[in-house]
Design a protein that fits this description.
globular; 3 helices; alpha+beta
């Protein structure tokens, strides 16, 4: 079996409950769901993080996620909303190092959520951060 569990699932060497199978993208149920219907969308080509992800594969992952999230609302599952979540790196909570987009169906009071306090920086701090990020983006030619 492949070292990467998601690559093994893509190859058919590990079990998964498949929701969508396209030439470049696979969607399957998360085995540790936050809510009923929680699933993952992965590119079939391995990329450990966003920096390694081919932009075309990324576009296909998000397009599939959008289609599935829209379809979820017409399913038999109780769904009032959907969160899309992608963790990139250990500090962001990534546990499996193959890019994957979580689709988490939501209902009022389901208990799932991001627990953080929003910061309130002043405009000078926001402008300085924007300048630093703009320079980084421009250096990558994005």
């Amino acid at each position: 079996m492949s070292e990467c569990i998601f690559c093994a699932i893509v190859a058919g060497d590990a079990p998964a409950s498949i929701v969508l199978d396209e030439p470049d993208v696979l969607a399957f149920m998360d085995i540790r769901p936050f809510t009923p219907g929680h699933l993952l969308v992965v590119p079939k080509r391995h990329a450990s993080g966003l920096a390694q992800l081919d932009p075309d594969d990324g576009a296909k992952v998000f397009a599939a996620g959008q289609r599935i999230a829209t379809a979820m609302r017409s399913s038999d599952l109780p769904i009032d909303g959907v969160n899309l979540f992608l963790a990139d790196g250990v500090a962001a909570g990534q546990e499996v190092f193959h890019v994957h987009l979580h689709l988490v169906p939501r209902t009022s009071g389901d208990g799932f959520g991001i627990r953080a306090r929003a910061q309130t920086p002043n405009r000078t701090v926001l402008d300085g951060t924007a300048d630093a990020l703009r320079a980084a983006v421009e250096s990558f030619g994005a």
